């Protein structure tokens, strides 16, 4: 396959969580395996799950994962606008990788969003001038008609950049045909002209039973299905919405491979509000014999060999939540009993003696849990770095995203933080993806917990991630009409697609 410079495609969805991120990654991996120079793009992302690029820019982790699918380094241009919720009413706005302020939802959609459109279009144009193809991901649904006037990520972007649009629907939820039809019917004539067709995601069963419905949908809309992707477990990598995961709480539990040693190792992750970068524990879940579950009650810590307090966009709010639920008291008891605890970023900060916060919560002096000899002061400038270091005799890589500056007054050094007894704290996200360090850390945890658990020497988190990305590429290659997809990317939406007036058919 030879690529025409500047080709592009927008992957939209009938809903949030329809599978846009993984489909985008799958298309990217399929293309790069065909020799196409490809890049991902998401104009505007709302997520607490972020990553730091080599130039020190903060972007959505989904776009970093998609860049890996493309086998290129992620850059700020791939996600020029990132919104990080600080609650239900406001978000931090990150522009080209740097925070530029806090805005309410009304303020953002009331005018600020359109002011960012020029930056978004410039980034996309630069990517399209550099790569053979740019695969763009939408956000939510393109049929959010209340937001269409200020949209810069779905049809607003598609119209300005003349991108063909592929609409993904999650059939596992039910109602996919109504969702496909309704999505198109709610769009204006000019927007509909760019909607080329549909991609069914997460189908279980005999595809032949689905085909009559796809034929009827084609007859009703004039738009074809570009493929039916089967349901596959374990492909929801680097999800965007930490808020949703924290609400799912204990429902999310890792699927465990058999242990190498005699025992499994149980990890409980406190599902703090505004949880960020919860993917830090994915590397633990990838280890054979490690069970990872999200918890929100103190009794759920009782049988845990390791408790993780993850990052959060609201450190003071997380402290209050831990106290309200009795988890704070359980953590203090656990530390005094020398049972393992790991705090990461905001989770590290809550373990300290006190916090001075005039930036995030603006609550001033707040007492921490007092488990670690650490004092935290929130700075207005955000720390965004990609540190490399050593711990437990192993090389460690990570990334930092935080306003809190920690001053350590004791304990044993641990990365940028400290360790006291079996309580560990660090600002470094991603450290557990360093295989040697992760195994050394788990050996310490197992010894402290009295578990006959043995980390698997052959587990490579990077290799597992590559396998997942290849599985996504396989899904596209084997179950989508790739020739038709390439024609969309290269030539745009077909001409003469019919207009579906709202309310049709009768």
Automatic annotation (TrEMBL):
Which Pfam families does this chain map to? CbiA (PF01656), GATase_3 (PF07685)
Catalytic center residues: 345, 429
Q: Report which superkingdom the organism of origin falls in.
A: Bacteria
Q: Which pathway?
A: Cofactor biosynthesis; adenosylcobalamin biosynthesis
Occurrences of domain CobB/CobQ-like glutamine amidotransferase (ranges): 266-435
Q: Name one GO biological process term.
A: cobalamin biosynthetic process
Give residue ranges for domain CobQ/CobB/MinD/ParA nucleotide binding: 10-242
The yes or no answer to whether the keyword Signal is present is: no
Listed CDD domains = CobQ_N, GATase1_CobQ
Q: Where are the transmembrane segments?
A: none
Instruction: Name the UniProt key words of this record, in alphabetical order.
Output: Cobalamin biosynthesis, Glutamine amidotransferase
Q: Name one GO molecular function term.
A: ABC-type vitamin B12 transporter activity
Give the protein's biological function.
Answer: Catalyzes amidations at positions B, D, E, and G on adenosylcobyrinic A,C-diamide. NH(2) groups are provided by glutamine, and one molecule of ATP is hydrogenolyzed for each amidation.
Q: Which family is this protein grouped under?
A: Belongs to the CobB/CobQ family. CobQ subfamily.
The entry's protein name is: Cobyric acid synthase
Encoding gene (name): cobQ
